[in-house]
């Protein structure tokens, strides 16, 4: 069985995700829409700013009336949030940052370039060109402008932008419902004692927390024992989920009960990926629900989730660009012999340079806790000290 | 009044944060501890793995018994999670990934390098060296190893690591309670109609959402009108918060009511920062509660929050390294004239190269919605096309 490249696997996954029905749209307040996916473009309904306003604390003037040394009386004081009278000719208006320019005025001089006279009038130290310190109406947006495109995730900046447009509610996709199951008799949930041969289940925590970061609605199905009847029964209990993610349990081995049920009652593609860590990967379907089977080793689960499952999930969620942000960084180590699998190496960034952490095997998670992200070494490629490779920060992969 | 450098401002802020009492410690389940700050180092209580185990599906053997062509009968089958009998001499054990090695065995051969004979015994195609495909006991951690240091934030990987150690509850710092207020008569909350001269409050959304990303407990104090009595009263209502963040309202202007109350009844340092956008910045104190006053313009609020308030807040939360991850990237534009203020430019990354977005003024948020992060141009510095500058991804700054 030949190895499937990461690129080919990703293409299959993204095509499958795009072929699924779009998630329903719901309308939420901005606070509730945090980290949801915008379903329709957000348009400006009015000009922003709605009127020309001052970008400084100072004095609004008719620019043609002001030469160096000019003295003008103050005819009104305009605070932000208040509505000014038209500016009387031969006067200036005291004005504060963000306050609307009075009709007639076309410029603002900052207070630092003026002197208040004994009689309260204002002396201008220099001529004031038209438009100085004025934010014109519509500078940020005109009515009908597309401010945010559909298919983006709403973070603090996007939500603040929507707020500034006066948008109290936005149309977003509903949450993707993802069930998570860990398979294997060796797994024990936290709080239970370990019997001989058993280990604590860490993939449950990894997957649940990672899915929460993506704002999925997560269904924790716990541990599935290595038993064909229990596997059948638990799968049959799946209700209203959009995706099932398992870790472990799907392989070509004798203890592959989840795979057996999928082969009998659903569909199953079993891939051997050209990926390290993370060779075994399953894409299946059970009663219409896609199933992603990640390998059970913690580092393999981590890498396959972040590199393959994450973009699939984001695409299902309606995100246009599901690729995490990555950077080109120099490396401080050499890989003299090329491998046939693409490797995602746990590295720390030290002064901008990627340092490989000890113990990269698939069974070990500890090096990931010391890493800042994953360094991608393509298949059939060597690297020398100082070469630049693609670095995927965890802050971006868990975003 | 001379400008205060960003570095000097950050140093003052971090020193103040470090001088405050540490937040109390509470013990939470792993699920509840997501994105909390670990208060005590997490130590391994037992060896991980607790016993040597197989990293492959295959056959456990005594390595010295196996030469190329050797045939051995299978004396037991060991699934993961089950406890094996000692390996009888002259036999092999069918073993699955993660299952404990039986006593006596010192190596595993993967099934692909074997042939099952007609009588069920196994023929080994090659010699098997000792330790092959065996994960030794304690490979990941030994009892007492410090696995996670205090002062880190608990993300999916750290929580999964804690789970693998059998740690059901962790000691973390309590949430920092932050009150957020926006000041100015020009501001209107979402859902209300705009009167002449008014705009919608976007900083509330920006700050609340940003603080939630940091896992602060946020108190929304809404909009503070430009009125000295109401300002006094609302400040007096502050209850059990660790920090007050305001946007707008603190300047040297006549409409500076929050600043006036702080000067009268608390403390106030007003800085003019060598920072663009974001010159005016306040650090104050009211009845023992630190007050950070951000400028009111949305881009200035954004930059001062991310560059100055965020590391202050993380330090208050107990985070050891509050600096966001940044990268060196090439730029595709020139800045021929150096400025006296350090500039944080909203840029998009296109093929790894920073492109400056249109409309960088402090009143405009729209360009930030199109940006991937902030590019730092130091004060008194020019840049040419192809130069490398420090880039701060939003995925890291909002992490």
Number of helices of chain A: 8
What would you call the shape of chain A? Answer: elongated
Report how far apart the termini of chain A are.
35 Å
C-alpha Rg of chain A (nearest Å): 30 Å
Q: What would CATH call the homologous superfamily of the largest domain in chain A? A: MoaB/Mog-like domain
Oligomerization status of the protein chains: homodimer
The greatest interface between two protein chains, and residues involved on each side, is: A-B, 95 and 94 residues
Model regions low in confidence, pLDDT < 50 over at least 5 residues of chain A: none
Largest sheet of chain A: 6 strands, mixed
Into how many domains do the coordinates of chain A divide? 4
Highest-level CATH class of the largest domain in chain A: Alpha Beta
Query: How many β-strand runs of chain A?
Result: 27
Describe the overall structure:
Two copies of one chain form a homodimer. Chain A has 399 residues and is an alpha+beta fold. The first copy, chain A, has four domains: 6-23 and 175-317, MoaB/Mog-like domain (Molybdenum Cofactor Biosythetic Enzyme, Chain A, 3-Layer(aba) Sandwich); 28-41 and 148-173, Alpha-Beta Complex (Molybdopterin biosynthesis moea protein, domain 2), CATH 3.90.105.10; 53-135, Molybdopterin biosynthesis moeA protein, domain 3, CATH 2.170.190; 327-397, Beta-clip. Chain A contains eight helices and 27 strands. The first copy, chain A, has helices at 6-19, 156-164, 203-213, 228-236, 257-265, 298-317, 366-369, 394-397; strands spanning 25-29, 42-43, 53-54, 58-61, 71-72, 74-78, 92-95, 107-110, 114-116, 122-124, 134-135, 146-148, 169-173, 177-183, 187-188, 199-200, 217-224, 243-247, 267-272, 275-276, 280-286, 289-294, 327-330, 342-350, 353-356, 373-377, 388-393. In chain A, the strands form eight sheets. A six-stranded mixed sheet of chain A has the order 17-14-18-22-21-19, sandwiched between helices. In chain A, strands 20, 23, 24, 25, 26 and 27 form a six-stranded mixed sheet that branches. In chain A, strand 21 (280-286) and strand 22 form a beta hairpin. In chain A, helix 1 packs parallel to helix 6. Chain A is elongated. The relative contact order of chain A is 0.13. The model of chain A has no long low-confidence stretch (mean pLDDT 94). At the A-B interface, helix 2, strand 16, helix 3, strand 23 and helix 7 of A face helix 2, strand 16, helix 3, strand 23 and helix 7 of B.
């Amino acid at each position: 069985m030949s190895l499937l490249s990461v690129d080919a696997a990703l293409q299959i996954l993204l095509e499958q995700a795009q072929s699924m029905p779009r998630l329903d749209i719901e309308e939420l307040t901005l606070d509730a829409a945090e980290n949801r996916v915008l379903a329709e473009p957000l348009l400006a309904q009015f000009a922003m700013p709605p009127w020309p306003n001052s970008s400084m604390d100072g004095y609004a003037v008719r620019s043609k009336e002001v030469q160096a040394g000019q003295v003008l009386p103050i005819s009104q004081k305009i605070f932000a949030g208040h509505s000014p009278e038209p500016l009387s000719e031969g006067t200036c208006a005291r004005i504060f940052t963000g306050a609307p320019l009075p009709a007639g005025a076309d410029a603002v001089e900052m207070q630092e370039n003026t002197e208040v006279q004994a009689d309260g009038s204002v002396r201008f130290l220099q001529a004031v060109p038209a438009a100085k310190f004025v934010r014109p109406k519509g500078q940020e947006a005109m009515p009908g402008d597309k401010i945010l495109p559909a298919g983006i995730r709403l973070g603090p900046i996007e939500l603040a932008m929507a707020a500034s447009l006066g948008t109290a509610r936005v149309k977003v996709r509903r949450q993707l419902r993802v069930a998570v199951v860990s398979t294997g008799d060796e797994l024990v949930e936290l709080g239970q004692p370990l019997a001989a041969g058993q280990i604590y289940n860490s993939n449950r925590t990894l997957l649940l927390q990672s899915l929460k970061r993506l704002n999925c609605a997560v269904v924790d199905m716990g541990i599935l024992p290595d038993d064909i009847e229990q596997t059948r029964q638990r799968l049959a209990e799946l209700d209203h989920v959009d995706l099932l993610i398992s870790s472990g349990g799907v392989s070509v081995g004798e203890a592959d009960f989840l795979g057996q049920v999928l082969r009998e009652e659903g569909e199953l593609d079993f891939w051997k990926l050209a990926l390290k860590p993370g060779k075994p990967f399953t894409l299946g379907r059970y009663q219409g629900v896609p199933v992603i089977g990640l390998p059970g080793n913690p580092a393999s689960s981590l890498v396959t989730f972040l590199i393959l499952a994450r973009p699939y999930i984001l695409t299902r969620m309606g995100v246009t660009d599901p690729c995490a942000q990555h950077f080109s960084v120099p490396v401080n180590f050499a890989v003299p012999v090329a491998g046939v699998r693409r490797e995602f190496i746990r590295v720390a960034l030290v002064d901008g340079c990627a340092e490989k952490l000890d113990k990269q095997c698939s069974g070990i998670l500890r090096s990931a806790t010391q890493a800042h992200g994953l360094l991608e070494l393509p298949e059939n490629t060597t690297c020398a000290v100082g070469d630049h490779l693609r670095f995927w920060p965890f802050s971006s992969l868990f975003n």
